[in-house]
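# nightly structure sweep
# worker-07 picked up a monomer target from the shared queue
# config: single-sequence mode, recycle default, output format = C-alpha cells
# input follows
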Amino acid sequence: MSESFFKWDPVRLTTHVDAMDNEHKKLIDIMNKLYERHEAKATKNELGAIIRELAAWTTTHFEHEEKFFDTLPYSQANVHKKIHKDLLERLKGHAAEFEKTGALTPAFFQFLKTWLTAHIMGIDTKYGMIAANKAG
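# output follows
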C-alpha cells in the first residue's frame, strides 16, 4: 500500500477529548480510503460512494462535536457552528463537481487536508482546552 494521504499527528491534532479525537481519526481514515482508491483508478461509482460516506460522517461528526461543545462555557460555539456549515457546503460543492465531471482534482484533496488540519488546530483545540479546564 502506498503512503497515506493524511496521517494522524497525536501532538498537533489532538483536542484532548478522546471521543472527538477518535472521530477525527475516522475522518482521516475515510479521506485516506478515498485517496487510495482514487490513486488505484477506482470507478466513479466506488469513489462517489466514498465521497458520500465522507460527507455523511462529516455531518455526523459535526453534530456530535456541536452537542459536546454546547455543554461547555464555549463563547465561540456559534462561530464554530457557522464554520461547520461553511465546510459542509464546500464539501458538497466538491462532491457535486465530482458527480458532474467524474474527476477528483488535486484541489479537492488539498481542501480535505487543509480543512481538517486547520480546523482541528485552529478551532477544535479551543473547545478541547475549555473541556480540559472544566474537567481539571
